[in-house]
Specification:
3-stranded antiparallel sheet, 136 residues, 2 domains, mainly alpha, 3 strands
Length: 136
């Protein structure tokens, strides 16, 4: 149990950020949270120019392989992703025609939650961030 008031405050800030991000996932995106996280992992792979295969998705999401496979099938049925053979790998690709206008506001909401948490943590100990030190 944490007995330091500063630690309680830091954890409260982080919990608020996590809840705000979770709220953004529930409010702004069309699929259930687990499916949305698989979709986000596929999007991350494309953004980093490293398309995700099933094994990569399992590693990134920390979901069981059967769950990831089920979520990918659901995303395929919705037309959100395609499964494509690239060399020896079978990877998931986003369907760019389906990316909706709801995506930009979602990322804005997530960014605001992270910036608010960062600002609040910095107010608590601005020198720790300047020194690159974390007191965990």
């Amino acid at each position: 149990m944490v007995n330091d008031n500063t630690e309680y405050q830091k954890r409260a800030i982080l919990i608020r950020m996590i809840l705000d991000i979770h709220g953004a996932v529930l409010a702004k995106l069309k699929e259930p949270p687990e499916v949305t996280l698989v979709l986000m992992a596929i999007r991350l792979g494309e953004m980093e120019d490293r398309p995700m295969d099933l094994k990569s998705l399992v590693a990134v999401t920390h979901y069981p392989r059967t769950s990831v496979s089920r979520h990918v099938r659901e995303l395929m049925k919705l037309g959100r992703v395609s499964v494509v053979r690239e060399g020896r790998r079978t990877v998931m690709r986003l369907n760019p025609q389906v990316e909706g206008s709801h995506v930009k506001p979602f990322y804005g909401q997530v960014e605001r939650a992270v910036l608010r948490a960062s600002r609040d943590l910095t107010k608590m100990d601005p020198l720790a961030f300047d020194r690159g030190v974390s007191k965990s």
